[in-house]
Design a protein that fits this description.
By secondary structure, the protein is mainly alpha-helical. The chain has 8 helices and 3 strands; from the N terminus they run αααβββααααα. A hairpin with an 8-residue loop joins strand 2 and strand 3.
């Protein structure tokens, strides 16, 4: 997915009944390359509002890391924390206060994709891939991407840099 498609998906999610929560879920999953299970398991104690960082816990034996949180994302998370009712240790909860499920996130992303008119069936893992491609296209090296996405094996990361359109742009400068 492109940055424009991510923006469209996020904007479409804002039209949902719980639009702020849903658009924030998409934003956080994309910015941090989270798998659906990592996103729905995200807890408030992983969010450091004072230092604007997120402690990312990976599944599938991935490497944990600490990511910076950008301003728009930090504001969205602060608002979510203020408005969450009932309060929960989980960042993303259902209307009954239970942790959001991966199946629920999958359905929400698919519906947002339809509302955004993407022309293909959107699913949560596309957000993780979009993160990898976006960072590779911004010139981040494979090792940094590996650490950011929590890949144990560099071969899982190479796919993002192999397809970066500008990967050889400054070789002779």
């Amino acid at each position: 997915m492109t940055d424009a498609e991510i923006a469209g998906l996020t904007e479409a999610a804002k039209g949902n009944r719980y639009g702020h929560r849903d658009s924030t879920m998409i934003l956080v999953a994309y910015r941090h390359g989270l798998r659906a299970s990592e996103l729905v398991d995200l807890r408030w104690d992983q969010v450091d509002f004072e230092n604007a960082t997120l402690a990312v816990r990976r599944v599938k034996k991935g490497s944990p890391s600490t990511h910076p949180i950008r301003g728009d994302e930090l504001r969205a998370l602060r608002r979510l924390a203020r408005e969450q009712d009932p309060k929960s240790p989980f960042v993303f909860t259902s209307e009954r206060g239970a942790p959001f499920t991966t199946a629920g996130f999958d359905r929400m992303v698919e519906r947002a994709g339809e509302a955004a008119g993407l022309g293909f069936k959107a699913h949560p893992h596309m957000l993780r891939h979009a993160c990898g491609f976006a960072l590779a296209n911004k010139g981040h090296d494979t090792w940094a991407l590996q650490a950011y996405l929590g890949h144990k094996n560099i071969q899982h990361t190479v796919r993002y840099t192999e397809l970066a359109p500008d990967r050889f742009k400054d070789f002779w400068r």
